Amino acid sequence: MAKKIQAIRGMNDTLPDQTPVWQKLESLLRQVVSSYGYSEIRMPLVESTDLFKRSIGEVTDIVEKEMYTFDDNGNSLTLRPEGTASCVRAGNEHGLLYNQERRLWYTGPMFRHERPQKGRYRQFHQFGVETFGMASADIDAEIILLSARLWKKLGIDKHVELQINSLGSNAARAHYKEVLVAFLEKHEAQLDDDSKRRMKTNPMRVLDSKNPQVQALLVDAPKLSEYLDDESIEHFKQLQKYLDAAGIKYVLNERLVRGLDYYNRTVFEWVTSSLGAQGTICAGGRYDGLVEQLGGKATPAVGFAMGLERIVLMLNELELNNDVPSDVDIYSVLVGDKTDLAGFKMAELIRTELPHLKIMHHCGAGNFKKQMKRADKSGARLALIIAEDELQDNCVTIKDLSGKTDQKTIEMDSLLTVLPTYF
Ligand code: ATP
Ligand code: MG
């Protein structure tokens, strides 16, 4: 036998038993964002490597070690590890951003060369929103409310916690970095190698350390909140006012700094304890400097991205995945000579006249018992049976596979009025 070729590690197939959960999630997402007036944008999967280096930052996990980068005739290209940079690039390129207000959303695969584990893959899917041209905290609150609405619709709202923080202005953060580095240098002996390296390259990331010893040391570290500029403090207060008014609970997490360079002021994460270590299902914040940094005119912006695999995992673990509709409503069973032609005709008629019903036409003939087994397996509510008697009398037999109603034989001509009474 020929050797089988397998999928690439960390890049998953989504099989038919899982696609209904994905579709449910995707359709709810579309519904929620359109109820807030957001428009979809679609960007390529591949961009210039420089785009990610310049936006995400040279000294971040993504750019240092997670990008799939390759040479294309002398150009360095990268499979997109996230959507924000591409969205800003597209917005600048097509003049969507300057002096305008934009509310955009996107979804699709992202690629990061990480160690695959539960909730962490090399190809994964994000759904994100990016808003441009609005500097006040009401838009920060809006995108948080939008995400909260989705959790509610999915039924996972009791299992997620909102954490928020403010990173302040660039100047405030630069000042804080100096104070933090001075503190870390004093305690360098207690830092692990990773934190020592980060102290030199991207010191705020030390606050992110998962090492308990480093975390213990940080209890006494200077706090970013004490170095925030007045405008950022006011902005953060406003955000909390809006969240309070909307009844959204949140936790202030001073250590929340996010891994990417482009954030300022508001940052937030939705976190769950039901997924183990990979607990962040949605993360975002304000990035007022990025549009200009990527060659556009200064434009305030705020957005988030959610990891869809992690949300699907949650839905599966909380058993919220079973109210998805079946792929099939009706299965046709055709026994005897020429009934296949009548069956085709009936199925096509139903598809034309009752397009919301999903009908699977039996192919390959076979005896009645075998066909009924297929009908059961299809998950259909009804089997429509045409045997020789029905063919002769121009009738069809309706068998309710849920057992809720009795079997009956009706005139073919009344089928289109009878069928909707079952659904
Ligand atoms: P983490 O701390 O888990 O590595 P991150 O800060 O790198 O997350 P972001 O860049 O903020 O993640 O991406 C937004 C969201 O996308 C994350 O909160 C998570 O839900 C999801 N995500 C990120 N990386 C992966 C991955 N490798 N596999 C699956 N989902 C991911
Ligand atoms: Mg990461």
What coarse outline follows from CA principal-axis ratios?
elongated
Structural class: alpha+beta
- Residue runs with pLDDT of under 50 for 5 or more positions: none
DSSP strand count: 16
Largest sheet: 8 strands, mixed
Alpha carbon gyration radius: 28 Å
Mean pLDDT: 94
Bin the strand percentage. Answer: 15-25%
Give the % helix.
25-40%
- Number of helical runs? 15
Bound molecule kinds, no repeats: adenosine-5'-triphosphate, magnesium ion
Describe, in plain words, how this protein is organized in 3D.
The structure is a single chain. The chain contains 15 helices and 16 strands. With 423 residues, it is of the alpha+beta class. A hairpin with a 7-residue loop joins strand 15 and strand 16. The protein is elongated and about 90 Å long. The two termini are 48 Å apart. Bound molecules: adenosine-5'-triphosphate and magnesium ion. The site of adenosine-5'-triphosphate (ATP) has 19 residues, from strand 6, strand 10, strand 11 and helix 11.
List the helices and strands and how they pair.
Blueprint (H helix, E strand, L loop, with lengths): L18 H17 L3 E2 L5 E3 H8 L4 H6 L2 E4 L2 E5 L4 H10 L8 E10 L11 E10 L4 H18 L5 E7 L3 H17 L6 H9 L10 H7 L11 H16 L5 E2 L11 E9 L7 E7 L3 H4 L7 E7 H10 L12 E5 L4 H15 L5 E3 L6 H11 L3 E5 L1 H6 L1 E6 L7 E4 L3 H4 L5
Parallel strand pairs: 1-5, 7-8, 12-13, 12-14
Antiparallel strand pairs: 2-4, 3-4, 5-6, 6-11, 7-9, 9-10, 10-11, 14-15, 15-16
Helix pairs in contact: 1-5, 5-9
Bound molecules: adenosine-5'-triphosphate and magnesium ion (MG).
